């Protein structure tokens, strides 16, 4: 084996790496293309057209490009991503890419090529409905969040696992960009001048800011289970038959409502940008929760053996808190994707300027209501009814 000294790959050295690893025949002609978005990581697609074989190499870069500058960012996140994919593979092998090879010194993961699927955000924007999406994500959430929690693992085993997901630098990005910056006049914020009044109102809204601070506390302090940490619709590949979750580099032990809330919010952008999609999207939100709740409860009843988990009402308490947290986290995601640093194509891609502004105003006010009123929702059906009558 070669010495493993970190260097960013290029299209030539990526080909050398997969050949050295014996993933392709030595003499075969390989095509290699860098297909990533280029902010934090490199992603190469390497294909042997003759034998119809291909793989993806993802490599972390030692810096992140943010607001035109670059700041150092630990390569350790490649290992976190690879370790999370391996855990997901144990519980839901059909819902994540197969990992062929990982190398922590090179910050590299070589995995199954999912190019036959589409990034869910793009597909939804183009009008796909992905009938199996919510059932699959509900199952992914239930299994990943149950099997890594204290309700399944012994507390010492869970603490040992949590140590592998020590991820302070990526957590800090979320802590700042999701929970703090959008609620204050911060340099990272980015929004249209026409939204200034709406944004000022939000910055002066002390009720909202207090509730957002409480949600931040949950994110900072509740190490309930291994969460993906970046489960938006750009981290999911879909077709009408398949669903695959990718990109868990933000994974750490956090509150279980967070992944659910991020997924909800990124579905909601589809209604906010096109009210004609209300039924499809509300069905997905409701079905995500219902499949999560059903599978999670079944696992709890069959595989949770600690005495305290059998106390009458305790599972209901955990689930209700999870739902209310998810609604609050979703509200934070709606706001930060509207006026914070990282926007979404669902909103920014609305062609008419007036409609785009209106959609962004709706996103801000829905986000605000969800954060402030999250404790009013006792069940998913009440939340769905509320969304149906919003505005
Ligand atoms: P980042 O952390 O930089 O966002 P992602 O893991 O989300 O990286 O990958 C960025 C892009 O690379 C994806 O949006 C997708 O287009 C492509 N990509 C990533 N993984 C795969 C894969 N397994 N198969 C095909 N394309 C992929
Ligand atoms: Mg990206
Ligand atoms: Mg990504
Ligand atoms: Mg990523």
TrEMBL record:
Coiled coil spans: none
Key words of the record: Amino-acid biosynthesis, ATP-binding, Kinase, Methionine biosynthesis, Nucleotide-binding, Transferase
GO biological process: L-methionine salvage from methylthioadenosine
Single GO molecular function: ATP binding
Residues binding ATP: 41, 58, 112-114, 247-249
Gene3D superfamilies the UniProt entry points to: 3.90.1200.10, Phosphorylase Kinase, domain 1
EC numbers on record: 2.7.1.100
Pathway: Amino-acid biosynthesis; L-methionine biosynthesis via salvage pathway; S-methyl-5-thio-alpha-D-ribose 1-phosphate from S-methyl-5'-thioadenosine (hydrolase route): step 2/2
Catalytic activity: 5-(methylsulfanyl)-D-ribose + ATP = 5-(methylsulfanyl)-alpha-D-ribose 1-phosphate + ADP + H(+)
Positions of transmembrane segments: none
Function summary: Catalyzes the phosphorylation of methylthioribose into methylthioribose-1-phosphate.
Subunit structure: Homodimer.
PANTHER family on file: METHYLTHIORIBOSE KINASE
Matches recorded under HAMAP family: Salvage_MtnK (MF_01683)
Family statement: Belongs to the methylthioribose kinase family.
Protein name: Methylthioribose kinase
Species this protein is from: Falsibacillus albus
Gene for this chain: mtnK
